[in-house]
Design goal:
- There is one protein chain.
- 44% of the residues lie in helices and 21% in strands.
- The chain contains nine helices and eight strands.
- Strands 1, 2, 3, 4, 5, 6, 7 and 8 form an eight-stranded mixed beta sheet that branches.
- Strand 2 (100-105), helix 5 and strand 3 form a beta-alpha-beta unit.
- It is globular, with a radius of gyration of 18 Å.
- The model has no long low-confidence stretch (mean pLDDT 88).
- It binds ligand GEK.
- Ligand GEK is lined by residues 36, 48, 80-82, 85-86, 104-107, 110, 133-135, 152-154, 157-158.
Length: 262
C-alpha cells in the first residue's frame, strides 16, 4: 500500500493543488490576516509541508494510530480537515467494521477540493465531509460516538476563550478508550527558549526555500490569527476536561502533537 502522504500528493497533483507556494514572495503593502481562501487552497500541500516540521510524520502516524484505536461501529473525526490528509491516512488504516469518518472544515474552498480528492482516492470509504464552523456545528451533526478525534493544527486558529468548551465536547463525545490527537504550534514560557524555537523554525522554512521576506510577511499575516499556547496550557486543558492519560508523541522545535486517551 502506498503511504498516506504519497496518496495525498498523487491526488493533489492530479487536482492541480500541488502548486508552489509563493503567496508571500512579493512585498505586500497591506498584509491582511491569513485566510483559508482559494489562493491558499491552490498551494496548501506545498505550504504546509515546507512550513510545519514533521507534518509528513504526523500524518503517517495518524494512520498508524487509527489502525490501533478506531473502534467498530464508531466514528473518527478530522476537525479542520483542510484537504483531507489526516482523513486519508485514517481511511487507509481503519480495519474494523462499520467505522466511518466525519471530516469538518469551515473553509468552503478547502471542502470543495477535499471532496474531489477523497472521491478520487478513497471512493469506497465512508467519509462525510461537512463545511461548518467547529464552534457552531449544526444541531443535526453533533460530535458523537467517537473513537478517534484528530485536530491537526486546527485548535490554534480558534479564539483561545472557545477552546476549552470545544475540548469538553470532544471528550464527552469520545467512547471509553477513545483518543484525541492534538497537533499544535506551541509557545514556550521561557522567553529565551521561545525566541530560539521561533528562529529554528524560521531556519527550517528558509532551508525549504522560503525567503526572509516570505517568512516575515507570513509571520505578520498569522499574527492574531494563529495563537499558540504552551504545552502546559494544553495539558491543563486536557486534564480539566477529563483526560487522565496525556503525553506528547511528537515534537520538533515549536511544533508538537499530543495524544490523550479517555
Ligand atoms: C491537515 N488538519 O492537513 N471551524 C472549522 N475549521 C476551521 C476553523 C473553524 N472554526 N478554523 C480554522 N479551520 C489539516 C491542516 S490547517 C493548518 C489544518 C494550517 C480550518 C481552516 O479552514 C484550515 O483548513 C484548518 O482549520 C487549519 O492535517 O494551515 O496551519
Amino acid at each position: 500500500m502506498s503511504s498516506p502522504l504519497s496518496t495525498f500528493h498523487h491526488a493533489t497533483r492530479r487536482k492541480n493543488t500541488l502548486n508552489h507556494d509563493n503567496l508571500f514572495s512579493r512585498p505586500l503593502a497591506d498584509i491582511a490576516g491569513f485566510k483559508f481562501d482559494a489562493d491558499v487552497v491552490a498551494v496548501f500541500p506545498d505550504m504546509i509541508q515546507r512550513s510545519v516540521p514533521g507534518y509528513e510524520t504526523i500524518i503517517a502516524m495518524t494512520g498508524t494510530l487509527a489502525g490501533r484505536y478506531a473502534q467498530p461501529r464508531s466514528t473518527c473525526y478530522d476537525l479542520g480537515c483542510s484537504l483531507g490528509a489526516s482523513t486519508l491516512a485514517m481511511a487507509q488504516h481503519i480495519e474494523v467494521p462499520d467505522c466511518n469518518i466525519v471530516a469538518i472544515d469551515n473553509a468552503p474552498a478547502m471542502i470543495e477540493h477535499c471532496t474531489h480528492i477523497l472521491a478520487a482516492e478513497q471512493p469506497d470509504t465512508n467519509v462525510e465531509l461537512i463545511c461548518a464552523d467547529l464552534l457552531d456545528l449544526p444541531l443535526e451533526k453533533p460530535l458523537d460516538n467517537a473513537s478517534m478525534v484528530v485536530l491537526n493544527f486546527t485548535l490554534q486558529f480558534l479564539p483561545p476563550e472557545t477552546r476549552t468548551a470545544l475540548m469538553q465536547r470532544i471528550y464527552d463525545a469520545l467512547l471509553p478508550g477513545g483518543i484525541i490527537i492534538l497537533s499544535e504550534k506551541i509557545a514556550f514560557a521561557d522567553d529565551h527558549l521561545n525566541q530560539l524555537m521561533i528562529e529554528l523554525h524560521h531556519s527550517f522554512k528558509r532551508a525549504n526555500g522560503y525567503s526572509e521576506l516570505e517568512v516575515a510577511q507570513k509571520r505578520s499575516a498569522l499574527e492574531n490569527v494563529l495563537i499558540p499556547e504552551t504545552l502546559d496550557q494544553h495539558r491543563e486543558r486536557l486534564t480539566h476536561v477529563g483526560f487522565k492519560r496525556i503525553d506528547i508523541w511528537f515534537q520538533c522545535f515549536n511544533f508538537a502533537s499530543l495524544l490523550a486517551i479517555k
